[in-house]
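>> received
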Amino acid sequence: MKSKVYTIALIIIATITVVAFIGWFVLKPAPYIMQGTVEATSYKVSSKVPGRVDSLAVKRGDAVRKGQFLYGISSPEVFAKLTQAEAAKDAAAAIQDKVDAGARKQQIQQAYEMWQKAVAGLELAQKTYDRVKNLYDQGVVPAQKLDEAEANLRAMKTTATAAEAGYSMAQEGAQWEEKAAAKALVAQAGGAVSEVESYVTETRQFAPVDGEVSSVISENGELVGTGYPVVTVVDLKDSWAVFNIKETLLPKIKLGTKLDAYFPALDKTYELKVTYIAAEASYATWAATRTSGEFDVKTFEVHARPATPIANLRPGMSVTVDYNSL
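>> returned
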């Protein structure tokens, strides 16, 4: 009798266990997997000047260091403009030197001699006037002669004054306005040279960061325009995962939320941290199929960065997160 009761009890317990297991399995919520893609910061290296690629030093897949030479552009027009700008600067500097130096010694000496000549003429005019004045007072010469002598004296005084001013101006050199204008011309020409030199530096391009060359768009000998990206460098150390999720999932996902993400390509799980959430354009909206009881659901773009650096992580890799585990 006891063994029979014992057997019945075991059957009941087993039945309850099986029913509980089946119920748990049936009622267990189905896993909701969010799938995303790994992205990384990329730099499109281009030049401000057009030209022909003449020294491509890298290829796709090459690891590069910051400051490493990538490619060069042949642009004869830029170097021609540099020659013109330097010549204009030299001409402006020569004008400034001339203005600063003032008149030549020969010119100063010539102005002095003209002044002395005028002084001698003034002395002679003064003596002539005195003689004529005495003769006029004695009634020997008419008033006409006195007037002529007086006019000649005034003219020689004016001539002497003008000659002295010319000599002083030759000694002093150019006015400050002329010197300032010459200095400004030199500065303007120097600015033009600096501008063209900046274009010359654009004919050689270098890696902006440590990274990997992901694409090489042009080859040696090809003509490229201003701003045309020739080489793309990817910074593998600056990577993140991008998820596109419905807004109905946002209650569990906030800025700073930590995610346990599985990377199939690495066959490992790593911790990510949400750093960016933004609504996508209207084309990514899930439209309601019924007019009552449903509403349009927008799609949000979510970025999550690794909590610690992940080795061998590359752009394009898939990443999955079990939403129910959040």
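>> The first helix runs from residue 2 to 27.
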